[in-house]
Amino acid sequence: MRKLFLLCFGLFLVSMQVMAQARNISGRVTDDKGNGLANASVIVKGTNIGTSTSADGSFSLSLPSNATALVISYIGLSDREVALTNESNYSVALVPGVKTGLDEVVVVAYGTQQRRKVTGAVSKISGSAVENIPMPSVDQMLQGKIAGLQSVSPSGQPGSFQEIRIRGIGSINATSSPLFVIDGIPVNTGDFSNATNSSNLLAGINPNDIESISVLKDASSASIYGSRAANGVILINTKKGAAGKTKIRVDGEFGKNDIAYFPDLAKPLTKDEFKELTTEGILHVGGTQADVEDILGQLGYNSTANYNWLDLVKRKGQQQQVNLSASGGDAKTQFFVSGGYFKQLSEIIGSSFKRYSFNTSLKHQVSKRLTIGSNLNLSSFNQEGESESSNFRNPIIAGMALLPTLEAYNADGTPNYDPAIFNQIFNPLAIRKYDRLHNQTSKLLGSVNGEFKILDNLKISSRYGIDYSNIEENAYYNPFFGDYSTNDPATTGLFFNSYNRLFNWVWTNLADYSFRTLRDKLDVHVTGGYEAQKSQLLTQNGSGNGFPLTTSIKYPSPVTPLTPVFAGSDYSFVSWLSKADVSFLNKYTISGSLRRDGSSRFGANSRYGTFWSVGAAWNIDQEAFMDGVDVISLLKLRGSYGVNGNAGIGNYNWRATYSFTGTYNSLPASFPNNVGNPDLTWEQNKPLDIGIEIGLLKNRISIEADYYKRKTDQLLLNEPLSPTSGFTSFNNNVGAMENKGYEVTLNATPVKTKDFTWSLSLNGSWNKNKVTRLREGQTEIRSLPYIIRVGEDVQSIFTRLWAGADPQTGDPLWYTNESKNETTSDFSKANRTIIGSASPKGFGGFNTTLSYKFISLDAQLNYQYGNLLYDQWGFLFTGDGAFASLNHNRKQLQRWQKPGDITDVPRYDFFNSTTSNAASSRYFYKGDFIRLRNLTLRFDLPASIAEKLMLSQFSLYVRGTNLWTKTFDKNITMDPEQGINGANDLQFFIPKSFTVGVNIQL
Amino acid sequence: MTTRSYFNKAATLGVLMIGLVITSCKKDFLDLRPYDSIGSDVAISNVSDMKAALSGAYANLGSVNLYGRTIPLFADLLADNVYISTVNSNRYLDFFQVNYTVTNSNAQGVWESAYSTILRSNNVINSPLKGTAEIDQIRGEALSIRALMYFELARHFAKPYTVDPNAPGVPVILEYNPIVKPPRNTLKEVYAQIEKDLTEATGLLTIEKSSGFFTKYAAKALLARVYEYKGDWPKALNTAEDVINNSGYSLLKLNEVLSFWENNKDRNDKMEVLFEVVFDANNNAGNSSLAYFYDQNGYGDALATESLYNTYSNTDVRKDLIVVGSPTRGANAKVVNKFPNAGSADKDEYKVIRMSEVYLIAAEAAYQTGNESLALDYLNAVAKERDPSFAGYSSSGAALLSDILLERRKELAFEGHRYWDLARYNMDVVRVNLAGNYPGNVPLVIAANSFRRILPIPQEELDANPAIREQQNPGY
After folding, report:
1. How does DSSP assign A803-844, residue by residue?
2. Alpha carbons A116 and B304: distance in angstroms, whole number
C-alpha cells in the first residue's frame, strides 16, 4: 500500500515537471456562426496532450516542443486540424458534419471519454435522432438504431411500456431490462400503474430535451454500474446551454395516425360470410335446415343490423407536438430552458396520450475553480385507454368478436348496451361513452451539482439528484351495464382510485484525477467515488360501488365503500466505485473498473458484492507500420471482460416474513408469506467482448464489429419445497445461461459533393441464447407453449405439430413424429416438440439519407427475422366454430368444405369439439419482417434567405412512420411487431403516422 | 498557491465529504423492511401477535381449497347428493367424472392449503409464550385447527381408518422446518396425533368468543367425530353425549331452520353451531366460494341430484333449502339454496360442526354399541325437528343403521359429509341417475375397492420429497 502511494506520488511529481517545460498557447473554439463552444476537445496531434474549452469556447494549453498541430473536435461537428505556428493565439471555427472518427467525445459512465480511448462497446445516438418523432417515449425510438439493442412494443397504447433487451435475454425470473441513467441519476423505469393497461415512466421525458444517448453493452463500459449493469446501461444526457448568442428554437408538427399493419386474414367476417360458415357448421354436426333458421335467428339474423365492429372501434388518430427552447449564456453562466406539448390520439377509440413538459438547466462558474449547476425536468402526462388482452371490455376483442348482426345504436343514436345482446362482450361504444380509465403521471427529475477543481487535473464533484413520479389513476365502471353492474343499487358500478408515489434520490460524489507522464507519452485518468441511493414506492388506493344512476359525476359517493389499500416498498444501494484508464502514446489503452455495491435487496449473508472489469484498446492506425496505408484511416482493436450483476430480484425476496395483510372475522390476521433465503443475491453476469473499429477512405466508410459472449449464472429460480413444510418453493440463485453473438455497424458516405450527399448506415445483430443450467435435477420449466429447457433458447416454443385438415373428412390432423410423415386425428397422439423460439435470430436497421442542396430525404428500415409469433387468440377467431356465437376472422374462410380440399383450416363445426383449436404449431407464424420505420422529406430554407429573415434555420418536413411493412409469412394474422415473447394478446395496434412539421431557429 | 496547499485543501474537502457520507450512511441504511410484514423470527412475540397469527390460521380454513369450496363440495359431488350441470364453467369435472390423476390441481390444493394451515397453527402452538388463560385459549384453538387439518388430510389422502388403521396416513409435521422431506406416518399415528391435540385443546379452552372460534365443546364435538371415523363407538358415544348434555348448546328447532341458513353472521347464542368458518365482507372466497358455485346468478354449476331431492317429504322443511328451477339450467333443475348469501358482501359461513351432527353421531354410536332405543332417541330428536308430520323412526338392526345414514344424508347435505359416510362403512358409491343428472361419461358406481376412493399424493410433493416418492397411493 505504502509502495503504491509512493509510486503514485512519484508519477504525480513527474507529470508536474513535464508540464513545467511546455510553451503556452491560448485560443477560442466557435461554431460556424461564431458562438463559443464549451467542452470542445483540443488535442495536440499525435499525443494525448490536450484540454477542453471553457464555457465561452476559450482554451489555454501547454505545448510540448515537438507539437506540430492541434486537433479540435466537438460533438456533432466536424473535427478540424490546425497547424501550429509561432502564434500564441488561435481562433478555430467548426462546421457541422457527420462524425465517424475516433476523436469524438462520448458520454460514458461517470464522465466523458475520447472515443479512441474507449475499450468497451458503447453505442451513441445524438439527440437530433430522437427529436420530433411521433412517439411518446425515447425508448421506442431506439429500435433499429443500435446494434445489439432490441426494443419492442407489447402494445400500441400511446405511452405504454416498451421492452428493451441488450445482447439477449439475461434472466428468467429477475428483470431483463437495462438500467437507465439520466443526467447521472439511475432512475426507476417500467410500469408502476395499478389500473392502466400499460404505462411507461420514461414517457415523462420529452425526447426533444435529449442531447445524447449512450448505450453501454459490455463489461468495460457498464461494470462500473455494478450490480445493476448486467442487462446493459442506457445513459441519457439532457440538453445544456452553451455560451454565446441566445438560441431560440421552435419545433412543431401535426398529423394523423392509422393502423400500421393488420393483415386481411385477421379481419372479422361480414354478415353474409358468418352466415355461410354457421349454416355449414350446423349441417356438419347433424343439424337440419330448420335448426339453421332457428340458430341464425338466435344469432340476430332477423335484424337489419349490419356492422363491421372493427371499423366501429377505429377512428382517425391524431398526432401533434410543439416544442420551444432557448439556450445561451455568457462565459460564467449558461442556461437551457424548454417547454413541450405532445399529443397522440391513437386509432382506437378512447386511447390517447397528452404530455406537458418543462426543462431547465443552469450552470454557473462561481470562481475559476468552482462550478455549480442544476437540472430540472418537469412533466405531466395524461393517458387514457381501455383494458387490453382477455378483458371483455377490450375494444379489440369487441371489434373482432361481436357479430355484425348486433345493433350498435339505439334509435336516438346513443350506443346500445342492452344486456340481452351484449351480455359477455360489451358494446365498446357504450364502454367508451360511459366508462373512464385515466392515468395522470407527473414526474420530476432534477439535480443540483457542484464541481471543484483542486488542481487543473484534479477535481471533485458532488451531485444530489431526485427522480420523483406521481401516478394518479381513476377507473370508473358505470352502474348500468358491464362487468360491475348489478341489480342491487347498493353494489352496482365500481370506481377505483389509485395514487402511487415513487421517490428516488441519489447522491454521487466523485473525485477525478488525470495526469501525463513519461514525456507525455503516458496519459492516466482515475475516477473514484461514492454513491448512495434510496427509492421508495407508496401506494394508496380505494374503491367503492353502489352509484347513483348517472355517469356525469366524476367521483360519485359510493353506497358501499370497499377496502382501502395502503402499501409501499423501498430499496437502497450504497456503492464505492473507481475506474482508471492508462493510455500510452495514444495507441494503447488499458482500463479497469471496480465497484462495491451493497443493497437492501441482497440477503444478510451476501449484502455486498464486488464487480469489476478490465479492457484494452489498440489504435493500430497510429502505429508507424501503418504510415502510408492511406486507405485505412482508422483501425482499432479492443477487448474487455468483467463481472457485473442483476439486482432486479425483488425488494424483499430474501427475507423470511410474516404478512399482516389478512383478516379473520374482522380481526387482523398474520401468516408466514415468504420462506426467505439469507444467501439470496444478485444474478451474476460475465461479459466478454472483442471489437474492431475500422475507418476507410478518410472515414468515408466506417465499420464497427463486435463479438460477445456473456455467461450469466446465479439465476434466480424457484426451488421447490415439500408442501408439508407449509411452503411450496423459495427463491434461490441456481440457474445459468449464456448469450453470444455478433454485432456489425456500417456507416458510409458514398457520395459527397458540394451540393449532394448520400450517406447510409446499416446495423445487424445476431444473438444466440442457451440455458445451461436449471436447478439440480431439473431439465425444463414449462409454461406452455413456452419451455425453458437446458441446452435450448430461453424462449423456446414447445407445442404439437399441426398437419392441417384431413382432405377426406376435414378433421384436424397433427403429426405424430418430428419427421412429419405420419399424421393422426387423435390430439393425444400428436407429437410435441420445440418448433422454434420467440427470440429473433437477427435484427437491425438500415438508414439512408440523400440530401441535395436544401432538400433531404431520410429513410430508416428496421428488420427482424428468425422468430416465431404466437396468435394466442387463434383458438377463438380461427377456432373452427368452437366459439360459434362469436365472429371469426377471415382466415377461417379457408376451411375445408368438401372431400379433396387441401387446406390447413379444418372443417367448421358449430360448437366444434374436435380440439382442433388447441395450441399447436397451427397458431405460430414466422416473425420475419421489414418495416419502413421512418421516411422524412425535408426542405431547409437556404442560409442566404434565412439570414434575411433573421433566422438561423428554417425547415419544413413531411414524415411517415411505419408507412410500409413487409412480412414473410403469407398466413400471418397480426402485426409482426409484438412484445419480446412474440405473443399477440389483442393489444392496441401499433400506429402508422403521417406528420408535417416545421423547425425554426433564431 | 503551492501544490502542497492545494493538496491540503483537497484532503480537507475529501475528509469533509467522507464525513458527510458516513453520517448519512448509518448501518441501517441497507436494512429495509417490507411495509406489510415483519420478520418471521419476531412475528409472534406477544399475546397480540399470537392472536393475529391464530387469526391467520383461521383465515386459511376459508381458502377455496379447504372449506371455501373444495372440501364441502368434494364429498357431496363424489357421492350422490350433487351433480355438475352440462352448462358449467369447467370446474370439478374431474371429481364428477372420477378421473383425477396425480397432477389433479384440486387434490394439490387441499394438500398444500391444509399443510400451510398446519404451519400457521404450529407456529402459534410452539410459541414460547405461556401461562395465562388467554394464551392457553389461543394455543387450544391452534391445536384444534391443527387436529382438524390432519383429520381432513387423513380422510382425503389415506384409506378409511375403519378399513385399515395401519395403512399409510400423511406426514405429521409439528414444527416449522422449510427443508423437511418426511415420509408418511401410519394412519394410526395420524389419528393418535389428532386425539392428542384435541384432548390437550379441551383442557386449554376456557373462553367462549363466538361460533367463529373453537371452544372446548367444539373441540369435543370434533373429537366425537374422530372417534366415529375410527369406529371407536364407546368413546364416540361418550364424547357426543358430553357435548349434548354439558355444552349448553341447543339443537336447531323446526321453526328456526330457514332463518338459520339465511343467517350470514357468526353466533353468540349457543344455538346449533359449535364451530363455523366465518366469511365476512372482508375475508371471503368471493366468486370462488361454495355458495357462488351453487348460486344460479353465480357459476351455478352444481345442482342437487333428483335422488337426494326425492328423499325429502313435502312437509320436510329442508326441502325448502332446495329451489326448483333455474333460468339457465331448466325449470326442473334443483338449485341448492342452503347458502343464499353469494350475492351479499357478507357471505355464508361454513359450518364445520353443529349439534345436529353431534346428535347423529350419538345415534350412530349408540346403535353400534347395541343401544338401539337410545339411537332412536337421538335420531328422532333431529328428524322430528325437520318434518312436523314425521312420526319418527322405529326401525332396528341394519335398517336402523341405514335410517341413521339416510338422516345424515338429508340433514348434512351440501356440507361435505355424504361421501365419508360411505367411505367409513367401505360401501360402494351408487349414483342413481334420475332426470338425466348423470351423462354417459360419468360413472354411476364407484366401487369400494376403486383406487380413486382416495386422492393421489400430489405430484409436486413426490417431486420435492424423495422420502414419499415410493409411497404413492396404489393405482396412481
Report:
1. EEE-TTT--EEEESSTT---EES-GGG--EEEEEESS-SEEE
2. 82
Minimal Cα distance from B174: which residue of A? A725
With bands split at pLDDT 50, 70 and 90, how would you rate the model's confidence at B86? confident
Of A78, A96, A114, the last residue of a domain is A96
The SS3 assignment for A396 reads helix
Domain assignment of residue A71, yes or no: yes
* Same domain for A87 and A144: no
* Residue B90 lies inside a defined structural domain of this protein: yes
Q: How many domains does chain A have?
A: 2
Mean pLDDT value across chain B = 93
B55/A663 Cβ within 8 A: yes
Spatial CA neighbour of A538 closest among A565, A559, A577: A565
Cβ neighbours of residue B422 closer than 8 Å, sequence gap 6 or more = B79, B428, B429
pLDDT tens digits along A462-483: 999 999 999 999 999 998 888 8
Per the structure, the complete domain to which residue A230 belongs is given by 122-242
User: B154, B170 in Cβ contact below 8 A?
Assistant: yes
DSSP character at residue A19: H
Query: Could you give the number of structural domains in chain B?
Result: 1
**Smallest Cα distance from A256 to chain B, Å:** 44
Q: Are A94 and A80 contacting, i.e. CB atoms less than 8 angstroms apart?
A: yes
Question: Is B180 in contact with A724 (Cβ distance < 8 A)?
Answer: yes
ipTM of the complex: 0.92
* Beta carbons of A749 and A851 less than 8 angstroms apart: no
Query: B210 vs A672: CB contact, 8 Å cut-off?
Result: no
Q: Other C-beta atoms within 10 Å of B107: how many?
A: 26
Q: What is the DSSP string of A624-658?
A: GGGTT-TTEEEEEEEEEEEEEEE--S-SSTTS-EE
Count residue pairs from A and B with Cβ separation < 8 A: 201
State whether A726 and B116 contact (CB < 8 Å): yes
Let me know: does B204 contact B132? Beta carbons within 8 Å: no
C-alpha grid cell for residue B462?
413426490
pLDDT of residue A82: 83
- Say which residue, A159 or B14, is predicted with more confidence: A159
The answer to whether B299 touches B383, Cβ cutoff 8 Å, is no
Chain A, nearest residue to B55 by Cα: A669
pTM of the model: 0.86
Say if the Cβ atoms of B14 and A460 lie within 8 Å.
Answer: yes
Q: Which CATH number characterizes residue B57's domain?
A: 1.25.40.390
How far apart, in whole angstroms, are the C-alpha atoms of residue B373 and residue A558? 59
Is residue B120 domain-resident? Answer: yes
Of A240, A201, A217, the residue nearest A168 (C-alpha): A217
Band of pLDDT at residue A439, cut at 50, 70 and 90: very high
Q: What's the 3-state SS for A840-905?
A: CCEEEEEEEEEEECCEEEEEEEEEEECCEEEECCHHHHCCCCCCCCCCCEHHHHHECCCCCCCCCE
pLDDT of residue A561: 84
Mean per-residue pLDDT for A101-120?
84
pLDDT digits (tens, 9 = 90+) for B165-212: 999 999 999 999 999 999 999 999 999 999 999 999 999 999 999 999
What pairing do the DSSP bridges indicate for beta strands A868-871 and A983-984?
A: parallel
**How far apart (Å, rounded) are the C-alpha atoms in residues A347 and A255?**
12
Give B149-158 pLDDT, tens digit per residue.
999 999 999 9
In a mutagenesis test of the A interface, which of B8, B268, B282, B296 is the best target, namely the one with the most A β-carbons within 10 Å? Answer: B282
Helix B133-157 and helix B216-230: axis angle, to 10°? 20
Q: Is the CB of residue A367 less than 8 Å away from at least one CB of chain B?
A: no
